[in-house]
């Protein structure tokens, strides 16, 4: 009986976690612009640096990203994320090896160019454009596919 109760409790917790994640992703897709804290939370979860079950907040994810060198310098949690900054977070979080210029400079600009070259960023894009929720989801999804394909 205790095992059944434990299993049922675990099932309810898991369903609640999935519902919260789905609600957060739906909210994110509706955003015209995201900030660095929101971007850090999604990217770090996708790259398995933080566990959604541990209840990381956007601010905690931002601090984690800062401490581990995943963020560009001189950005605050509430600053709007631009595409070159997001590129830098993705390159660092997913540990994507870049070309010669990125390897030498570790710059946001060359991170952006590397993600364009790899097809993670597609279509008409500018490194200074602000990141929308759906663009964030698209870039993270493409990075996941790239890293999974590299591991096979």
Describe this structure in words.
The protein is mainly alpha-helical. It contains seven helices and no strands. The chain has helices at residues 2-29, 36-46, 58-67, 83-93, 100-105, 108-117, 133-151. The relative contact order is 0.14.
Percentage of residues in strands: under 5%
How many helices? The count is 7
Q: Which bin fits the share of residues in helices?
A: 55-70%
Nearest-integer average pLDDT: 86
Radius of gyration: 17 Å
Ends: how far apart? 42 Å
- Largest sheet report: none
Count of folded domains: 2
Q: What is the string of helix and strand elements?
A: HHHHHHH
Per the principal axes of the C-alpha atoms, what is the gross shape?
Answer: globular
Could you name the ranges where pLDDT drops below 50 across 5 or more consecutive residues? 1-19
> Would you tell me the structural class of the helices and strands?
mainly alpha
| Strand segment tally | 0
